[in-house]
């Protein structure tokens, strides 16, 4: 039996305060990791490169104790030059040859110390140890040890890692395998970080493209018509088929490329195959659903007209996703910056000859996992706050007797109620989503470790577990929306609101499902539209930068951001519809339409909803 009566927007108290305290403690841990990463990390080393004395090329440096040649201004010296580029060897992921930061690479072969001296004077690029004066190249008896091995082969700059790559065929045949070995022996974590850094401009541009697509869709759904629904479905079908075709074409192109030697290129091939298979499965499933549900388009148009009328009373709801998006962008930029610093965290230790080596610190992997959990939990918390804000505004307007005089500033009022009373509930709901995501991540990690040893039965078991956790997460995400709306209506904590939501949904499950199911499907197609065309732009952009770059992982990051953006924007309609239906069910339960207990619902909405429920 039900323990309480529904009390729409009458009673209010702080909810789930212990969960809010737990979230603050968790963020204190994130701040500790941030401070540690900033102090111990140097993301520039990953891409810019550094010399043997601890100087990062292309920027000013701070001195390292015990290394007299460290702490130099390398702003104009952007390239790494190896003194013995024709006889490189790998020792514990370190190249044995001394390296320097130089302003330009030698374009012609240098056969003598006089040639080195002339090159330094004419080009301003010194190829000998920093403390050897240019005028001493031909006079210092130790110049042969402090300058590169002669002859110095002609070289050109390699853009991604800023290295001087020798062009002499004999030297290049020895240099290239060492560089390839160095990149291949880097762990996946660092290869992914280098790919993100190298393609950061493309990632930012694609994120802005996803933002534009999402905003256009929001405006389109606000004034939706039957023709617009048909156009959206046609674009989604075209996008799914086109992206799937491009993914299979790129996979075939990469696989048949005989020059694929690097581990990053091999990873690109594997990821492309996975993307192509996943995209094909999604395309087949969605096309089947579109074919089955095509006859309910007119009903969907009526549904969105009702939701559009409610949003018309609260026009600032359309701008709510923009603030959410900006907050998410700020958090993601902060998270990626900390991740890059954390991935390069190490202590500078001097060796013989005043050289510097960076050694990784212990415990970095645990911090990375903690930081990753922070990404999921905080992102879900931000989205939960948006859902509660929208639900609060809808509830405030719905349970207002005078429809001709809506309450002033319902969005600001909803934000005020959220921050004063219900942040803890948003924390708890987002934590439950995070808890269901962590096992999926752990399973994926184990799958990658054991994929060479596991049997076909184990693969099937892993995939079943992935599917089960994904279904659980989707159901919980949908249920959380109703819990947040119930919290806003009754002012109760998460567990009590969950019980109330279960009772009201159980009595109206068939009616609510028939009303909102297809509308949610159309909104999902809108999200697929944004992701498809953003990923297509990413495929075209990243495909031109294949070398030494795990660009498929940044592409996955772009797809994830695109989905979150589209979800953040289109959830205005989704949350508004779900909140409206729950308010309608509560209204029908607590009132009977008499003079003593009149309905809160607008008469036009009552007629439309009653017709749609039949």
From TrEMBL:
<dbReference type="InterPro" id="IPR007603">
    <property type="entry name" value="Choline_transptr-like"/>
</dbReference>
<feature type="transmembrane region" description="Helical">
    <location>
        <begin position="548"/>
        <end position="565"/>
    </location>
</feature>
<keyword id="KW-0812">Transmembrane</keyword>
<dbReference type="GO" id="GO:0022857">
    <property type="term" value="F:transmembrane transporter activity"/>
</dbReference>
<comment type="function">
    <text>Choline transporter.</text>
</comment>
<protein>
    <recommendedName>
        <fullName>Choline transporter-like protein</fullName>
    </recommendedName>
</protein>
<feature type="transmembrane region" description="Helical">
    <location>
        <begin position="20"/>
        <end position="43"/>
    </location>
</feature>
<feature type="transmembrane region" description="Helical">
    <location>
        <begin position="314"/>
        <end position="338"/>
    </location>
</feature>
<dbReference type="Pfam" id="PF04515">
    <property type="entry name" value="Choline_transpo"/>
</dbReference>
<feature type="transmembrane region" description="Helical">
    <location>
        <begin position="231"/>
        <end position="252"/>
    </location>
</feature>
<feature type="transmembrane region" description="Helical">
    <location>
        <begin position="521"/>
        <end position="542"/>
    </location>
</feature>
<keyword id="KW-1133">Transmembrane helix</keyword>
<feature type="transmembrane region" description="Helical">
    <location>
        <begin position="272"/>
        <end position="293"/>
    </location>
</feature>
<keyword id="KW-0472">Membrane</keyword>
<dbReference type="GO" id="GO:0005886">
    <property type="term" value="C:plasma membrane"/>
</dbReference>
<feature type="transmembrane region" description="Helical">
    <location>
        <begin position="203"/>
        <end position="224"/>
    </location>
</feature>
<comment type="similarity">
    <text>Belongs to the CTL (choline transporter-like) family.</text>
</comment>
């Amino acid at each position: 039996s039900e323990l309480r009566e529904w009390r729409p927007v009458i009673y209010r108290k702080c909810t789930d305060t212990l969960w809010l305290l737990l979230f603050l403690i968790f963020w204190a841990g994130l701040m500790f990791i941030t401070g540690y990463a900033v102090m111990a990390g140097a993301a520039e080393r990953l891409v810019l490169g550094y010399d043997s004395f601890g100087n990062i090329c292309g920027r000013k440096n701070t001195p390292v104790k015990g290394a007299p040649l460290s702490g130099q201004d390398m702003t104009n010296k952007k390239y790494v030059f190896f003194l013995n580029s024709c006889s490189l060897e790998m020792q514990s992921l370190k190249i044995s040859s001394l390296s320097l930061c130089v302003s330009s690479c030698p374009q012609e072969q240098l056969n003598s110390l006089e040639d080195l001296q002339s090159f330094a004077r004419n080009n301003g690029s010194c190829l000998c140890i920093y403390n050897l004066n240019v005028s001493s190249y031909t006079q210092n008896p130790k110049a042969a040890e402090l300058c590169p091995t002669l002859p110095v082969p002609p070289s050109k700059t390699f853009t991604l890692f800023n290295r001087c790559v020798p062009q002499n065929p004999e030297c290049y045949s020895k240099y290239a395998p060492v560089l390839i070995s160095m990149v291949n022996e880097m762990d996946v974590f660092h290869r992914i970080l280098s790919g993100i850094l190298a393609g950061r401009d493309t990632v930012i541009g694609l994120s802005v493209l996803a933002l534009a697509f999402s905003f256009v869709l929001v405006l389109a759904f606000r004034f939706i018509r039957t023709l617009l629904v048909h156009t959206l479905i046609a674009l989604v079908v075209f996008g799914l088929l086109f992206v799937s075709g491009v993914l299979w074409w790129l996979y075939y192109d990469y696989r048949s490329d005989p020059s694929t030697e690097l581990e990053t290129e091999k990873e690109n091939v594997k990821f492309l195959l996975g993307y192509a298979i996943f995209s094909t499965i999604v395309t087949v499933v969605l096309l089947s659903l579109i074919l089955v549900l095509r006859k309910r388009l007119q009903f969907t148009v009526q549904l969105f007209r009702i939701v559009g009328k409610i949003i018309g009373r609260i026009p600032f709801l359309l701008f709510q996703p923009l603030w959410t998006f900006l907050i998410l962008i700020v958090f993601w930029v902060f998270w990626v910056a900390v991740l890059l610093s954390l991935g390069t965290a190490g202590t500078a230790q001097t060796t013989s000859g005043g050289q510097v080596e960076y050694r990784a610190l212990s415990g970095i992997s645990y911090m990375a996992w903690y930081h990753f959990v922070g990404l999921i939990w905080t992102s879900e918390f931000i989205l939960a706050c948006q859902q509660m804000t929208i639900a609060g505004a809808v509830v405030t307007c719905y349970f207002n007797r005078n429809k001709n005089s809506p309450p002033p500033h319902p969005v600001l009022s909803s934000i005020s109620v959220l921050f004063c009373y219900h942040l803890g509930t948003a924390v708890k709901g987002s934590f439950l989503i995070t808890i269901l995501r962590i096992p999926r991540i752990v399973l994926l990690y184990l799958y990658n470790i054991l994929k060479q040893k596991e049997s076909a039965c184990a693969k099937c078991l892993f995939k079943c577990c992935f599917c089960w956790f994904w279904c659980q997460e989707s159901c919980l995400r949908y249920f959380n929306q109703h819990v947040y709306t119930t919290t806003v209506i009754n002012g109760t904590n998460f567990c009590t609101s969950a019980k109330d939501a279960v009772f009201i949904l159980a009595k109206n499950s068939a009616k609510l499902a028939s009303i909102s199911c297809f509308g949610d499907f159309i909104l999902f197609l809108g999200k697929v539209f944004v992701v498809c065309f953003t990923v297509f732009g990413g495929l075209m952009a990243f495909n031109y930068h294949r070398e030494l770059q795990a660009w498929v992982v940044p592409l996955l990051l772009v797809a994830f951001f695109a989905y979150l953006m589209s979800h953040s924007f289109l959830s205005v309609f989704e949350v508004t519809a779900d909140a409206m239906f729950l308010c309608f069910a509560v209204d029908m339960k607590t009132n009977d339409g008499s003079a003593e207990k009149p309905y809160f619902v607008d008469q036009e909405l009552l007629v439309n909803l009653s017709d749609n429920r039949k």
